[in-house]
Amino acid sequence: MAGGADSFRALLRAANALLQKRRYHAALAVIKGFRNGAVYGAKIRAPHALVMTFLFKSGSLREKLKSIAQATYAHSRNLAYFVFTYKGLLAAQSRLQGKKIPFHSFLAACIGGWLVFGDNNPINSQIIMYLLSRILFGLSRLAVEKGYIPQPKQDPFPLVAALVWGTVLWLFEYHKETLQPSLQSSMTYLYEDSEVWHDLSDFLIYNKRTDSK
After folding, report:
1. 136 and 204: one domain?
2. CA-closest candidate to residue 37, choices 125, 144, 117
3. Is the pTM of this model over 0.85?
4. What is the rounded CA–CA span in Å between residue 101 and residue 110?
5. Which domain, by its residues, includes 195?
6. CA separation (Å) from 49 to 25, 58, 115, 143?
7. Whole-angstrom Cα distance, residue 142 to residue 190?
8. Quick one: what percent of the chain has pLDDT higher than 70?
């Protein structure tokens, strides 16, 4: 028993010593990036899938739990693969050119995005739309910072909020099929289901009656 414990401690010391070696830093960063991508993807997707599944999807408890597990696995796997690919390509480019330049990041992420997120499915679609909204905000701020557009005299956020909500509700009312399915479900719950009730039970307590009355 003591020999086994000593061997484990020796192995642990060797692993910790390896992690401190600068020559392996790039390769180890790729591995940790894979780990962090998997963990972060699961943390983000599991609660979202849990809420959306139990709010809007029908089926047995087993089917709902299976759907949650599949969505969580897909998000976790894709993010892990992307981080692994991105950091690996970044390290390879930096090694080949002898230094890191901004274009390396763009090219590595483009290749990773094509390979990992190129499949048009609900999980990837949600991730891309999440990123797109933040890219637009980021590019707008960068344009002001670099002087490409003048600094607004007033906060433009109220106007942006008005245009976003005006556009999305117009699309929902007249071109619903253009919106992403989960957004359609959310808006149907908020704006269409609130138009229908039969008595106090499905007016205040439930959204829809489950009986045949």
Report:
1. no
2. 117
3. no
4. 15
5. 154-212
6. 35, 13, 24, 36
7. 35
8. 97
Please classify residue 86 by burial: count the beta carbons closer than 10 Å to its beta carbon, then call 0-12 exposed, 13-18 middle and 19+ buried. Answer: buried
Residues 137 and 176 reside in one and the same domain = no
Identify which of 196, 160, 167, 197 has the alpha carbon closest to the alpha carbon of residue 183: 167
Token representation of residue 181: 């399915």
- Identify the domain boundary among 118, 140, 168: 118
Q: What is the spatial distance between Cα 129 and Cα 29, in angstroms, rounded to a whole number? A: 27
**Could you give the maximum distance between any two Cα atoms of the chain, in Å?**
74
Question: What single letter denotes the amino acid at residue 212?
Answer: S
| Distance (Å, whole) CA 102 – CA 4 | 49
How does the average pLDDT of the chain come out, rounded?
89
* Cα 29 from chain centroid (whole Å): 21
Do 188 and 181 form a contact (C-beta atoms < 8 A)? no
Q: Any idea how long the chain is?
A: 213
Q: DSSP code of 119? A: S
Pairwise CA distance, residues 147 & 140, whole Å: 11
